[in-house]
């Protein structure tokens, strides 16, 4: 799909410049231009071939830990190869131009951090931070033996160096609750913002998808960047259709000249 060079209304640019606290809410779409597969993007979505409810779930991990670990190892390899794109970089720049910015992502990749963003709230965990099922400690050892290729085939999860427990992936799995502390930080940022920028999310995964509603209820201006309309479209104040890597840098340059 091709989009013309984006034009932004004066009202939108003023809202950005005058906001006291911006909450940015990102999903898999922001990393799509870095080559990381989204779950639901038509034709290319990872889950056209897999059932996440079955596989990347807490039950899946119990029943077939090697299958889950093999898939996680493949996604991790994909993430390690990926580089932050212009959209990740634009958000990091935006944070330096405004009074206060909270970045809440549903992504388990580390591209926001590698683009220069700090204190990123990872609602759904972090691929690069696996931990032990037994003692709960972070695991910093290798994902698999060096002679194994992470191609999605089953791989036996490693064991904890401290208690020999099985290591679990860093992302939150289907059937698990979000970490309370992380959820509360995200909800607080949404309630306290005066502008919420929603980027590259389908809004289909709950409770994450309810976060922009908290901002809306408190009177924040909602701005969405996405390739296509979605469930947020009827409630946003500004819909900016297009690829995040094109729209966001243009928006931030138009508002702040960077
Ligand atoms: P999703 O796959 O459900 O939806 C992706 C959204 O991004 C769609 O609305 C699509 O139109 C939009 N999109 C795709 N490319 C875009 C682009 N270049 N610019 C702007 N928009 C674009 O993703 P979701 O809403 O984040 O929910 C899926 C869940 O999958 C999340 O919980 C997330 O944790 C997880 N996930 C994460 C990653 C990652 O870490 N990069 C990748 C896949 C899935």
User: What fraction strand?
Assistant: 5-15%
What overall form do the CA principal axes indicate? Answer: elongated
pLDDT < 50 stretches = none
What percentage of residues falls in helices of 4 or more residues?
Answer: 25-40%
Number of helices: 9
As laid out across the biggest beta sheet, the strand order is: 3-2-1-6-7-8
Helix-strand pattern, N to C?
HEHHHHEHEEEHEHEEH
Spell out which ligands are present. Answer: nicotinamide-adenine-dinucleotide
Radius of gyration: 19 Å
Name the average pLDDT: 92
**N-to-C CA distance:** 27 Å
Number of strands: 8
**Helix/strand class:** alpha/beta
For the sheet with most strands, the description reads:
6 strands, parallel
Any overview of this molecule?
The chain is of the alpha/beta class. The protein is built from nine helices and eight strands. The strands form two sheets. Strands 3-2-1-6-7-8 form a six-stranded parallel β-sheet, with helices on both faces. Strands 4-5 form a two-stranded antiparallel ribbon. α1 (10-18) crosses α9 (244-256), α5 runs parallel beside α9 and α7 packs parallel to α8. The model has no long low-confidence stretch (mean pLDDT 92). The site of nicotinamide-adenine-dinucleotide has 28 residues, from β7.
Short structural description:
This protein is α/β, with parallel strands linked by helices. The chain is built from nine helices and eight strands.
């Amino acid at each position: 799909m091709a989009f013309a060079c984006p034009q932004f209304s004066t009202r939108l640019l003023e809202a950005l410049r005058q906001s006291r606290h911006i909450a940015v809410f990102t999903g898999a779409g922001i990393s799509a231009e870095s080559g990381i597969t989204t779950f639901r993007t038509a034709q290319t979505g990872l889950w056209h071939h897999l059932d996440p409810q079955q596989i990347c779930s807490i039950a899946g991990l119990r029943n077939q830990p090697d299958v889950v670990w093999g898939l996680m190892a493949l996604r991790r390899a994909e993430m390690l190869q990926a580089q932050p794109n212009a959209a990740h970089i634009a958000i990091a720049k935006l944070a330096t131009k405004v009074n206060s910015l909270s970045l809440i992502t549903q992504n388990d990749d580390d591209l926001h951090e590698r683009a220069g963003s700090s204190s990123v709230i990872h609602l759904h965990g972090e691929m690069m931070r696996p931990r032990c099922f037994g003692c709960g400690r972070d695991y910093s050892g290798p994902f698999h033996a060096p002679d194994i290729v992470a191609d999605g085939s089953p791989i036996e999860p490693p064991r904890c160096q401290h208690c020999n427990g099985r290591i679990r992936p860093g992302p939150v799995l289907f059937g698990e609750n979000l970490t309370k502390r992380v959820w509360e930080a995200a909800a607080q940022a949404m309630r306290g913002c005066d502008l919420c920028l929603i980027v590259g999310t389908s809004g289909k995964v709950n409770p994450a998808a309810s976060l922009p509603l908290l901002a809306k209820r408190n009177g924040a201006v909602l701005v969405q960047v996405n390739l296509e309309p979605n469930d947020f479209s009827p409630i946003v104040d500004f819909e900016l259709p297009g690829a995040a890597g094109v729209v966001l840098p243009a928006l931030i340059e138009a508002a702040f000249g960077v």
